Amino acid sequence: MKDLCSCYVDMVNNSTNQSLETETVSKVGDESAAACSMGLVVVPECEISSDGWRAINNVKDITVGEENVEIPWVNEINDETPSHFRYMPQNFVFQDAPVKFSLSSFSHEQSCSSSCIEDCLASAMPFNCAIAVDNGFAYTADGVIKEDFLEARISEARDQRKQVVMFCKECPLERAKKTEILEPCKGHLKRKAIKECWIKCGCTKRCGNRVVQRGIHNKLQVFFTPNGKGWGLRTLEKLPKGAFICEYIGEILTIPELYQRSFEDKLSFPVILDAHWCSEEWLEDDKALCLDGTCYGNIARFLNHRCLDANLIEIPVYVETPDQHYYHLAFFTTRDIEAMEELTWDYGIDFDDDDSLMKPFECLCGSRFCRNMKRSKKTKQIMNRA
Ligand SMILES: C[S@@+](CC[C@H](N)C(=O)[O-])C[C@H]1O[C@@H](n2cnc3c(N)ncnc32)[C@H](O)[C@@H]1O
């Protein structure tokens, strides 16, 4: 909107034409801010930058029609517009990642039986496609994650004693730093995944074991947060515990490609797909993958961080490939959520790690478990003692 207003003012100032039309325009131009906010301005298309048009067009739907639902953005705080990015409803390989979806990569044992003709959840016996989950399918007939499966994932994420941390012999993250001495692996959380039915299964698209692949369906809104975190994502309706919200979409990069971006000072918000990194002796560079939603992404790029008690949790979900190196990262609610609540997830940041690939920030999450707050208290104590 700011672009549109300044473009409009520019047009008025640059005009040499003394016609009646111009006079009318300059009057409106004097009150450009008010006129813009009332939607009164009509500017020829050629006068507006492409970014300006994207911002204006996307007010009602930042997904530009790519999702099942429209997701508007609002800014009740100032006149900033969301930064420019290309909306993508699914992940795309940037260049080197060898992710390929092929029918031959799935054996019959990995798909559900062809005797399952409609909804796998209705079957008394879980099919092969549910083997990733302890007690059969991860979802209930209402389309939310089963309570025990969800609780186990939440406590693994929040309670260090429940976490299984694995260490690579030679970590791709350390290798990519190209330092003279290779640092030891910092460890990767082993995560339980969900396996959804897919094209090789006998069921229909409405099968209860196809949740993430059916996409976003809740009323959401991108909004400018009032407490200094920039843009955020909130729900416009009540959400039950265990509901799927969206997945993290971005470019699929290898870890060397990610480091290349950080060497070139391109800011990124990467998510490392390391749930199974340590299950093999040696992980080749091109098999260590991550998602970067900075330039190409979906609404998940607006999710802000909250330490420990975030209302979303990320769970790996396999759909099209049994290759453990690539998976979807899906966000589910950790509790019932009220309309207008901001949606947050724990980025898993270690605020003391100066090596982090994520751009450092002062955490304003407001959680009583805030790790950044503890750090500043610790720093203050040390400084007081000195
Ligand atoms: C993935 S983006 C989230 C969307 C972002 N707020 C925006 O305006 O586009 C991550 C960035 O958001 C900001 N952010 C996220 N969580 C935050 C928090 N708890 N406190 C302060 N800033 C936060 C930081 O600037 C961080 O680098």
What does this protein structure show overall?
With 386 residues, this protein is α/β, with parallel strands linked by helices. The chain has two domains: 2-84, no CATH class; 87-385, Beta-clip-like (Beta Complex), CATH 2.170.270.10. The protein is built from eight helices and 17 strands. The protein has a five-stranded mixed β-sheet with strand order 1-7-8-17-14, with no helix packed on it. α1 (2-14) packs across α2. It starts with a helix and ends with a helix. Mean pLDDT is 81; it is low at 1-46. The structure holds S-adenosylmethionine. The site of S-adenosylmethionine has 14 residues, from β8 and β14.
Provide the descriptors you would attach to this structure in a database record:
386 residues, alpha/beta, Beta-clip-like, 2 domains, 5-stranded mixed β-sheet, binds S-adenosylmethionine, Pre-SET_dom, SET_dom_sf, chromosome, Probable inactive histone-lysine N-methyltransferase SUVR1 isoform X1, SET_dom
